[in-house]
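Predict fold of Large ribosomal subunit protein uL1; 229 aa.
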Amino acid sequence: MAKQTKNQKAIFEKIEKNKKYALTEAIELLKEVDYAKFDGSVEVAYRLGIDTKKNDQQIRGAMVLPNGTGKDQTVLVFAKGEKAQEAKDAGADYVGDDEFIQKIQGGWFDFDVIVATPDMMGQIGRLGRVLGPKGLMPNPKTGTVTQDVTKAVQDIKAGQVAYRADSAGNLHLPVGKVSFTTDALAENVKAVQEMVLRVKPASSKGTYIKNLVITSTMGPGIQIDVSSI
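Predicted 3D structure, encoded as tokens:
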């Protein structure tokens, strides 16, 4: 880890170790201690009391943040005929089939999200080895394999984020940019919290939300008191 500068050390010392801050206070502190010279992303990280080895305790899906992520998402849609036209009308950046499969096989990745109609998944399947490790494979659970390409594209453009708990039960989601107002970031975090509570596995025992931290690209993690959300 790089050695902290005096300025960074002073910034980090503003955060009380082991203290859990109220949501608004945590966001305001995050803005204060962010030392990046660019508009960094803001992310929340949950440590959940789930056992992802059990099928009924896996958490995966997608949601639209009330205030978006602050990032423009480039969308590639695999569709044909009428569905391809619907995707174009909805604002997709790239729409097609075989030509884009070949481009991806050739190393092209100028997109953030792939949406596909179910009939295209047989062809896209052969891209699994390159799309899978990058987290780009379309999936019905995240709403990216669908007949309703219009809704899928519009949701992504409006600030949809995909989420998935890792093997240790950690869940990371972007919630905006440092330049967002405190209220906008708080609203996004509250929406994420509602989602996390809603998808709690019925078989999960003990403490469900063990820890919640908010952080920016260049800032330290700040613990949030979950009861304040």
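The two ends are 33 Å apart (CA to CA).
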